């Protein structure tokens, strides 16, 4: 009869021992720890269910050329015997054997060795039965697939991995997939994307062909004909092999090796900031600075008893000052370019200027004063690791997807880099005339519940859904970083006074407007937020033009 072994072990026995006796299977002589067994409680005779259901004879030529019969060792009146397969000595129990006519055993095999063959034969029989049926699969709808009887090592057309195993082969073309890939779950819950389940697709959907995508796990390029798990709403793609490998080990991308210390990270500036970061020198002396009622910046200096007002004036004797900078192997001299006819371009931010800068005459390397005091290490909201200041040749920025040949901030182990403009000049939010009364936040993908594509409301081009953008959820307006906050190539140019120009009938005055998103350049129609402009101050005229447009008109009249 079938009994629960836990009931037998927990029962009290006639011997009175407190410790329950060990129960073993009579057939295989192995300990029975739990579950249901066949047994006679009166005789203390028990068997595993699998052992009790062993066939009386087996015919496997892989073991022996003759059929084998199940034999009880005790019934044959001997206690020990030897397995000819695993070559181990056994005590009592059941075994399979072939006996000659003179009652001499010519071959014996233990239950374990025979069960392996039984299981293997059952698997082969199941494969043969399955191979008789041709299947149709959504991943290859044009032809039927047949399961091959023997495993093979090949590159799977589904997971793109070269592993050995059973596989389906197309009956008409060169299409092979692993048997496991043919039965993938249609949806999975991925631990690194908990907001939505990932859905299985058999190629990259056509609506995503406009941009390049990379696996969120291995960061390898997504090919259009690969099987993927994806979240269409979030534009989240994972190779099926990466998605199913839930026991990924920690890599250098999780624990990057950098030269920064914990103290450096804690003291690092965090970006993006609430305002455009253009004055690191002021931040360096933040505790010593203050602003008066007119908004002018004052600094308390030990050499003078009164506050000093920040002012830019040409001082010829400043050219004798020099300092050293970590970017260059040579020393950099502080020079004054005020009054020069040619603007000097900073090798750090790419902006032209006509004030003070640091220069290496040997390398023809220029560094404006603010860029000379940029922080060495920063933290940025778009990346989990600290970013270190680098100057790589033509790096591709991960925020704007544009090439930038000046100073950048990078996490080398992750191959992640942001150009200096996207780091420093892209604040948490910006004002724009398209969204009156409120600012537009800097948004990082994915944008939840926004399945449709984004189009920039300024340039009207489709936006890459994996790049940060300025997005107004209230007005449904979207903007490229470089469209709403254009690169100011004359950010370090300062002029003053009123001049006559050939392209306008009234004199124009140099002004630098503060945060006024309602004003735009009358020539290029772009915002003049914080830019140096020429403005007509006549009461009957509202003409203004940004300095960049004025400069271009002078160069190309």
TrEMBL record:
<keyword id="KW-0862">Zinc</keyword>
<dbReference type="Pfam" id="PF03107">
    <property type="entry name" value="C1_2"/>
</dbReference>
<protein>
    <recommendedName>
        <fullName>Zinc finger PHD-type domain-containing protein</fullName>
    </recommendedName>
</protein>
<keyword id="KW-0863">Zinc-finger</keyword>
<keyword id="KW-0677">Repeat</keyword>
<keyword id="KW-0479">Metal-binding</keyword>
<dbReference type="InterPro" id="IPR046349">
    <property type="entry name" value="C1-like_sf"/>
</dbReference>
<feature type="domain" description="Zinc finger PHD-type">
    <location>
        <begin position="455"/>
        <end position="525"/>
    </location>
</feature>
<dbReference type="InterPro" id="IPR053192">
    <property type="entry name" value="Vacuole_Formation_Reg"/>
</dbReference>
<dbReference type="InterPro" id="IPR001965">
    <property type="entry name" value="Znf_PHD"/>
</dbReference>
<dbReference type="InterPro" id="IPR004146">
    <property type="entry name" value="DC1"/>
</dbReference>
<dbReference type="GO" id="GO:0008270">
    <property type="term" value="F:zinc ion binding"/>
</dbReference>
<feature type="domain" description="Zinc finger PHD-type">
    <location>
        <begin position="155"/>
        <end position="219"/>
    </location>
</feature>
<feature type="domain" description="Zinc finger PHD-type">
    <location>
        <begin position="24"/>
        <end position="87"/>
    </location>
</feature>
């Amino acid at each position: 009869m079938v009994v629960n072994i836990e009931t037998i072990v927990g029962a009290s026995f006639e011997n009175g021992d407190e410790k329950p006796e060990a129960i073993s299977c009579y057939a295989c002589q192995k300990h029975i720890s739990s579950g249901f067994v066949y047994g006679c409680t009166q005789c203390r005779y028990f068997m595993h269910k699998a052992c009790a259901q062993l066939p009386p004879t087996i015919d496997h030529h892989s073991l022996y050329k003759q059929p084998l019969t199940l034999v009880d060792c005790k019934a044959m009146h001997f206690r020990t015997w030897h397995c000819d397969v695993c070559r181990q000595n056994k005590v009592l129990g059941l075994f399979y054997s072939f006996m000659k006519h003179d009652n001499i055993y010519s071959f014996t095999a233990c239950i374990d060795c025979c069960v392996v063959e039984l299981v293997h034969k059952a698997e082969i029989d199941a494969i043969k039965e399955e191979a008789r049926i041709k299947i149709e699969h959504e991943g290859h709808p044009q032809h039927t697939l047949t399961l091959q009887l023997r495993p093979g090592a090949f590159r799977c057309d589904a997971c793109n991995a070269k592993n050995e195993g059973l596989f389906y082969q197309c009956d008409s073309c060169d299409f092979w997939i692993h048997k496991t890939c043919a039965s993938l779950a249609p949806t999975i819950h991925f631990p690194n994307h908990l907001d939505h389940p990932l859905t299985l697709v058999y190629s990259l959907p056509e609506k995503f062909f406009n941009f390049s995508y990379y696996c969120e796990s291995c960061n390898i390029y997504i090919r259009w004909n690969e099987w993927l798990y994806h979240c269409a709403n979030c534009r989240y793609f994972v190779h099926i092999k990466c998605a199913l490998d839930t026991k990924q080990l920690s890599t250098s991308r999780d624990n990057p090796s950098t030269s920064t210390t914990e103290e450096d990270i804690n003291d690092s500036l965090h970006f993006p900031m609430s305002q455009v970061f253009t004055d690191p020198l002021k931040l360096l002396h933040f505790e010593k600075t203050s602003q008066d009622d007119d908004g002018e910046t004052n600094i308390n200096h030990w050499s003078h008893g009164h506050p000093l007002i920040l002012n830019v004036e040409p001082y010829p004797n400043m050219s004798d000052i020099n300092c050293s900078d970590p970017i260059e192997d040579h020393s950099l001299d502080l020079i004054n370019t005020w009054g020069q006819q040619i603007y000097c371009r900073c090798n750090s931010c790419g902006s032209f200027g006509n004030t003070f800068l640091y220069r290496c005459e040997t390398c023809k390397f220029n560094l404006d004063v603010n860029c000379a005091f940029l922080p060495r290490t920063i933290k940025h909201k778009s990346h989990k690791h600290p970013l270190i200041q680098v100057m790589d040749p033509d790096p591709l920025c991960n925020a704007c997807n544009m090439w930038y040949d000046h100073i950048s901030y990078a996490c080398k182990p992750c191959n992640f880099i942001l150009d200096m403009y996207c780091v420093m000049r892209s604040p948490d939010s910006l004002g724009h005339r398209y969204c009156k009364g409120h600012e537009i936040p800097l948004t990082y993908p994915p944008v939840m519940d926004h399945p449709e594509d984004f189009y920039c409301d300024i340039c009207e081009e489709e936006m890459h859904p994996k790049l940060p953008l300025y997005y107004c959820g209230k007005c449904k307006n979207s903007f490229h970083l470089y469209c709403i906050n254009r690169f100011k190539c004359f950010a370090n140019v300062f002029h003053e006074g009123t001049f006559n120009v050939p392209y306008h009938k009234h004199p124009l005055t140099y002004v630098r407007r503060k945060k006024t998103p309602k004003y735009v350049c009358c020539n290029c129609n772009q915002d003049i937020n914080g830019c140096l402009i020429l403005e007509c101050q006549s009461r009957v005229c509202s003409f203004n033009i940004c300095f960049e447009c004025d400069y271009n008109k002078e160069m190309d009249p």
